[in-house]
Design brief:
9 helices; single chain; mainly alpha; globular; 269 residues
Length: 269
């Protein structure tokens, strides 16, 4: 004989809810599973922390073999196109030439990421010999440099094929690495990735400055200006107490924080 569904309280909006997802706000309840990658969702999450799929989505992404995969099938197509492009260029150039000149070349162990102050002709460090954190930092800096040059295709290729696989090997991610991942998702034009990482950071640390800044940027990518302004207000209110903590990620991304808060003051004054 069928029984009534157990009613609980949504951890996100506090509305009465039952099943696996809140009918009022869509947030996940206990036992919810991501429709995209089948990962277990934390109660209250609105996006999957692994693949960015909105909680409660009824259109699962195609399943792929492997350990907890993310939807990077497009990487294979990009890789084939890149191989063809590099092969064609190397037939017409001297051995060792890079794609779109050295400044835009894809990172290669021993051929890229020259140290600050290095003399012309000196070999760069072999990134394969670096620690996982050092490789992540080098790749992040490279992605940001390419973004500033407007090299969107290179940004996406490095993000999908180098940066994200490196982060997956370092799971579980802390707030610092989640901000880095969300920021890379932002410059690569992937709002879902930026939103999912901001959501996860703020669920664990509601006043985290980088989480609020990332959430504001992701909201603007989605065209949700009211939400972006609310995150801006929260960041400005949290700044005094958060700045004194001198967290590692606050120090590493001090310029990001200063720039974002300055812009927030300008927008909501």
């Amino acid at each position: 004989m069928p029984t009534a569904a157990t009613t609980t309280t949504c951890p996100s909006c506090a509305a009465p809810a039952s099943g696996q997802f809140c009918a009022s706000c869509g947030a996940s309840l206990a036992g919810a599973i991501c429709a995209g990658c089948r990962a277990s969702l934390t109660p209250g999450a609105r996006f999957c922390h692994r693949c960015g799929t909105p909680a409660g989505s009824s259109a699962p992404r195609p399943a792929r073999a492997g350990r907890d995969p993310l939807p990077w099938a497009v990487a294979l197509i990009a890789l084939c196109a890149l191989i063809a492009l590099v092969g064609g260029q190397r037939f017409a150039a001297a051995r060792g030439a890079g794609l779109d000149a050295p400044q835009n070349a894809l990172p290669q162990a021993g051929l890229d990421f020259p140290a600050a102050g290095a003399q012309p002709g000196m070999r760069a460090p072999d990134i394969s010999a670096m620690s996982p954190q050092e490789r992540v930092n080098r790749l992040y800096d490279r992605i940001m440099a390419l973004h500033e040059q407007g090299r969107t295709d290179s940004v996406r290729f490095i993000a999908l094929n180098m940066f994200i696989p490196q982060l997956r090997s370092m799971e579980p991610l802390d707030a610092h690495l989640r901000y880095d991942l969300g920021r890379v998702g932002e410059v690569a034009g992937t709002a879902d990735v930026a939103t999912a990482q901001a959501d996860t950071i703020l669920r664990e640390q509601p006043n985290h400055l980088l989480g609020l800044i990332l959430a504001s940027r992701a909201a603007r990518m989605r065209g949700d200006e009211p939400a972006a302004r609310e995150f801006d207000r929260r960041a400005l209110a949290a700044e005094p107490a958060e700045r004194v903590k001198q967290l590692e990620e606050y120090v590493a991304h001090a310029a990001d924080i200063t720039s974002a808060l300055t812009e927030a003051r300008r927008i909501i004054r």
